[in-house]
Design brief:
Distance between the termini: 42 Å
Helix content: 55-70%
Radius of gyration: 15 Å
Structural class: alpha+beta
Number of strands: 2
Number of helices: 5
Strand order of the largest sheet: 1-2
Order of helices and strands: HHEHEHH
Largest sheet: 2 strands, parallel
Oligomer: single chain
Shape: globular
Strand content: 5-15%
Length: 98
């Protein structure tokens, strides 16, 4: 599974893109607790690194817009209207620039 996750690294792709890009990331972790409580700490560390890396990416590439949504990784199921509004606002901004 980890090999497949490494193959899905989108950062090199993001760096090559030149057109406008919207990245919406989940801002809330789902606590596992119980026997999987160790996973909560692991994911918190991962998110800290992801925040750093995405912040650096957006700062270095002004065509990249980074949004954080108060939702878990299942944001499309939890907050479909909020996701749609972020996309609508992003695309409306593109139209107004052209």
């Amino acid at each position: 599974m980890l090999d497949q996750m490494d193959a899905l690294d989108l950062f090199p792709v993001y760096r090559r893109l030149t057109g406008p890009v919207l990245i919406v990331r989940a801002g809330r972790l789902v606590a596992q607790g119980g026997p999987l409580a160790w996973f909560d700490e692991l994911m918190a560390a991962y998110v800290k690194g992801l925040d750093r890396d995405l912040g650096e990416l957006a700062a270095a590439h002004p065509h990249i817009t980074l949004e954080t949504l108060d939702a878990s990784h299942a944001m499309l199921l939890e907050r479909p209207n909020a996701v749609a509004e972020l996309i609508r606002s992003f695309t409306a901004g593109l139209r107004s620039r052209s």
